[in-house]
Amino acid sequence: MTKHKYIFKQLEDLVPLSLAYDWDNVGLQVGNKHDKTRNVLVTLDVVERVVDEAIEKDCNLIIAHHPLLFAPLKELDLSSPKGQVIHKLIKHNITVYASHTNLDIASGGVNDMLADQLQLKETKPLIKTYSEQLFKLIVFVPTKYSHQLLEALGDAGAGHIGLYSHCGFLSEGQGTFKPLDGADPHVGKINEQHYEEENKLEVIVSEHRISQVLEAMKTYHPYEEVAYDLIKLENNGDNLGLGKIGKLKEPTTLHALCDKIKDRLQVSHVRITGETEKEINKVAVLGGSGEKFTQAALHAGADVYITGDMTFHAAQDAEEAGLTVIDAGHIIEKIMINGITQYLSSQFEKINVIGSKINTDPFKYY
Description:
Udp-n-acetylmuramoylalanyl-d-glutamate--2,6- Diaminopimelate Ligase, Chain: A, domain 1; five-stranded mixed beta sheet; alpha/beta; 3 domains; 11 helices
């Protein structure tokens, strides 16, 4: 049976912890990473009703977007609302793990999910926070094993360039070595110099995938000792950051876009500034509370900025500056429930990964 720590590792392959802001609290929140996973519940928030849902569905691991423990605890009062949640989690041996700003920033994360639902094209980060560091892996492998190793490295995440995967370069040469006493060589004889027709295989690896790529290399390489180089490159990989800016497939009105948001993001209402018949082409979107980034949307040339938790004066200032705003609510980040559920289900076919059905939006609308 799979342990929680392997679920965490797979999730961190998609959304590395290193992407999170330093003020954030991501990763293990409550519980034991070494526990064996029965079922997994994916949720936006960890509230008591969600814990009850996990108990009912026999889920001993909860994956959340919003951290249960954000500010440091000065005391653990079990009579407080949060204390009751923590007490119930521990009592029922349920582990909680959070992916927050790293899930916002990562490629394929919350803001990519929102942009995809709105069918935006030519997207790029609204606020750049991180450029992936790239490395070149050079490994020497017997010619007949070259294609097998290239495929394994590609499957582990190496050789990704833009919209292409499994990219690499092979050059022919001759490797030489002398197995010493105690060695168990794949080819060659003890204490005899051996010459082998080999390929030099070169692939690009992003920093956060190095460990899994090296693990795949050592697993699929036929030699007992693998000769390889790992070189830090000056060129960077993808630019990552908060939010997305992109274009609609075709221009539309603010009114029509609001209807689309309510339909595709499953919200009952939105708040807007600006004229409903304004033509919209370029769209900025940022899940969660994005009122601090209206200037970024303006500078990016957005016709409209879609976010949540827009306060009165922030919306007023944006309108005065000429930026149309759609406040669709913090709850639009619930899009991560389906996205993470699908991702983990594809990686762990024998584990039941369940998307929470509990609506954690504290607001009701009349």
